[in-house]
Amino acid sequence: METAIRHLYRHYFVSISLLGLLLLLLLFHLLPFWQDSQPVSITLERYLIMLTLIAIPSTLKWFATRLKKSPRPLMWEDASRRYRQLYFIRLYILTAVTLTHILLFGISRNLNFFWFSLVLFIIFLFCRPSIPEIESLLVEPEKEEDEGKKTE
Question: Where are the domains of the chain?
């Protein structure tokens, strides 16, 4: 169990570290690229904001739903593999959206992209790997009491 969580944490911290480093390098003009800002069309900006507002909750909801609907109980190897697959999809979708905002901030110096990058970094704080989530795949799900009970 420790190795699986360690592996997920490694991906988590490497993603956040590289994205943070890139953002800081672009923020302080330390990269030789994009020294002069180039305007980005308002249409692109609006569609990217819309895409971000759709991608964030849908990715988080998709992960929670898929985890909840996984067959249970699973053996440790199956639970670890299932959680790892779902976690990587969630992590890399959020990483791709964040990277897009950071790169567009570097190109255009538009502060909307910078603020969305910061919001996405905050969302990353809530997407850490979780041992209880993996362990929940190992036990039988609790059945709702009186599910089939008729009301009088």
Answer: 2-18+46-136
Secondary structure class of 45 (helix, strand, coil): helix
Q: Which amino acid is at 106?
A: G
Contact status, residue 11 vs residue 85, Cβ threshold 8 Å: no
Closest CA relative to residue 63, chosen from 150, 141, 152, 126: 126
3-class SS at 146?
Answer: coil
Reference 10, options 91, 100, 121, 118; nearest CA is 91
Give residue-wise pLDDT tens across range 2-57: 888 899 999 999 999 999 999 999 999 888 776 777 888 999 999 999 999 999 99
pLDDT of residue 139: 85
For 3, the token pair is 């190795």
Cα gap 116→122, rounded to integer Å: 10
Distances (CA, A) of 90 to 3, 40, 64, 113: 20, 28, 10, 21
